[in-house]
Structure formats: structure tokens, C-alpha cells
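Figure 2 data, in text form.
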Amino acid sequence: MAKSAKSKVDVVVIGAGIVGCSTAYYLSKRGAKVALIEKGEVAGEQSSRAWGWVRQQGRNPREIPLSIFSKGLWSELSNEINADVEWIEDGSLKLAYTEEEMAHFESWAKEARDLGLDTRVISASEVKELVPALEGPFLGGVYTPSDGQAEPRKGTEAMARAAEENGAELYSHRSVEGFRVEGGVIKEVLTDQGGIEADSVVCAAGAWSSQLGRMVGVHLPQRVVKGTVVCTEPSEIVSHITVMSPDVTFRQKRDGTFYLSNGLRSDYYVNRESFRDLGLFLRNYLRFRRNMKVHIDGELVKDLMRGLPWSSAQRHPFAHTVDIEPEPNSQHVRGALRSLKNLIPSIGKLGIKRTWAGMIDASPDATPVIGEAPEVKGFYFATCFSGHGFALGPGAGLLMSELILDGKTSIDIRPFRPSRFRDGDMADWTKTI
């Protein structure tokens, strides 16, 4: 494709997932001139591969105000952008199987209620009242009635359309290849189809954010894991409450299909990024190591080759990442189906409609990174949502628009600032459930 002429906008948003599309929407809604650029298709990566949960439950206390803020936007989103995103607000439930878990849930729920969340710990009999089909040795759970669910691809694509209707320019299959920074101020995004000058740049690139940060001289500690999801054939409606247990998580859509995951199990592939910030990620790894399988395979060699000075990846760093399709973990597929049958014995045989995998980006404290990079004025991060980007996307997008246009935000985003890792002020993720 021929190079396009250099253009000038107020804000370039990198990444057309739910966070990037929401940022472009709220900026353009207020009249900002926005270019939304994506190296593949809109919603082509994790934002179309998520579970579809919109939950405030379970996060660390720093993140609860953001989750409440974002869920409030989800509740009205279909009406605001005139699109059916399959919103259902029936709550979320996490099951506890030990007295230790119940005590931890009680402690978390008390702090969450103090922050304004409508959540409570319930007994096993109350669990059965909510979802009669559930069976097993659970002692109870934590239930948040205002949590909900939506369809990931529909929600993300609808936000992209709404941004375009507001005047945002959307460029798909356009890859970032560098930046121009002068005097510590961002000036231009360099792409494979020409440059785009801008006063501000928002990196909402999910799994690729750390690499983009290095290209502009900014350090962002980040890890990426692969999660596998199963979509079943339609079945009788069990519940529209989203349910999480150690071995299976599920939500049931309007049409009766289940979205399943084998609990929080994931795959991690060692690459060059793995050798950065080891100390910051060690505690996180130790906590989740039972649910994470580490792979050392040919991809590490390929990634090392891309780092060589003569590699084409030095000129076109994201060419090998466009329209990738991660391979689902077949063991996790079987495990999810088996565990669902154990949890809901009355359910009939479920056929598999499709399976997929997605790359989930995470920070060392499993908390988003939102804010301006201290090293480069005008360069912002909205990334590292650690598995909750879909739920938090609209809220993060609105806050980014406020930060850029007003210099202040509706809720405090200091806990998410990029410099917190350097400052030693990370969130205590052991308080999550």
C-alpha cells in the first residue's frame, strides 16, 4: 500500500480493542480530532476473546472505584450508542470451598462495601437459591448483584462505530513503527503508511504496550499469558449470573450458549520479555503457579532472532503479530467441560460450538496502568488491565478523555499511574479474591 500523506490530529489512540475504542469515542464525543490506529482488525485480539464479564467483584480495593465507575457506563451503553451489546445485569457469584476462603471473602466484601459496592458473602443454601442447578461441596460464596455481562466483539465494534460517527478516523491494518519525540514531548506517530502528528498519544495496545513503550523510551513492566475459552452449543437456561469456581468459570448468554474457562488456568510462553523485571513479577508468579503452565519452545528462538540488528522485525516490529490466532489449550477445553458437568450435574451433553484463545496482558500488581508516562509528555498508557479490560474499558476510555482534555479525572487514577512501579507503590493484589 502506498504511503499516505502526513496528517495532524489532537490525539492518536493506538489499539482498537475495547479500551482504545472507548477512548476514541469519549474524546471524539467532546470534539477532539482523533486517529484510532490498529495493526489488524477492530476487536481482533483480546477484546473479542474475553469472557464477557462486567464484574466489579474480586478486584483489589484500589480498583473497585474504577470498576463501579465503568459498570455504571455499561448499564447505559446500549442506549447511549444505539447498539445492542447483549447487556445482562444479573450479578456475579464466586464459590468458596473452605473456611479459609469464606473468611477471606468476608474480609474482602467488608472493604468493598465500604467503597460503595453492593456485595455480600452468602451461605451454601443461599447459593442454591440463586442458582438451584449448582451442586458440590461449596460452603458459600460472594455475590454482587449489580455485576453483569455483555458480548465482547459486539461491544468493542459498537464503540468503534460510535467513535467514527463522532468524527474519529479509524485506520485498521496500520502498524506503528516508531515515534518522533522532541525535547521530551511526543510529536508524531510513525506508521508503515506514513506519519501522524499529534499533541497526545494513548497506548491502548494491550499485549504490545511494553514494546511500544520502549520505542518511545518509556519502561513498562508487563507480562502476557494465554487463556482458553470454550463456547458450547445452546442449552437450557441455568442462570444469567456469572459463576466462578476453582475449576470452571462460566456465563450463559441469552441464546443458552455457555462461555466457559477452566478456572483461572493459563499458559505462559517464555520470550525476551520474560527476562525483564523478574523481581517485580516473582510474587505474582508464585501465587498463580499452580494455574499457569510455563512453555519454553520454538517461539523463544524466533523472538530472540527478531532482536538481532539485521532482522526485518527491527524495521517492522509488529508485522509478525498481525491477525494472529493463538492455539487454544485442548486440556483446558476438556477440563472446563468436565468441571461444568460436575458443578451442574443436571445439564445434558454439551456440544462445542467453538474454542479460542487470547493473550492477556498483566502488570506486576495485576492492576491497570492508566496515566501519562513521566518520561515523555503527551504519551499516555491505558493498558495492563490484567484480565479485566473488557469490564473496565468504557470507564478507562472516559477517564483518558478527561485526563487529556481537562487535566483531571472524575475518579482518582493516581493508584494506576505508570510510575508506581518505580516508586514502590504497587497495589496489594493479595487482597483480591
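Caption note: Residues 7-431 form a domain with the FAD/NAD(P)-binding domain fold (CATH 3.50.50.60).
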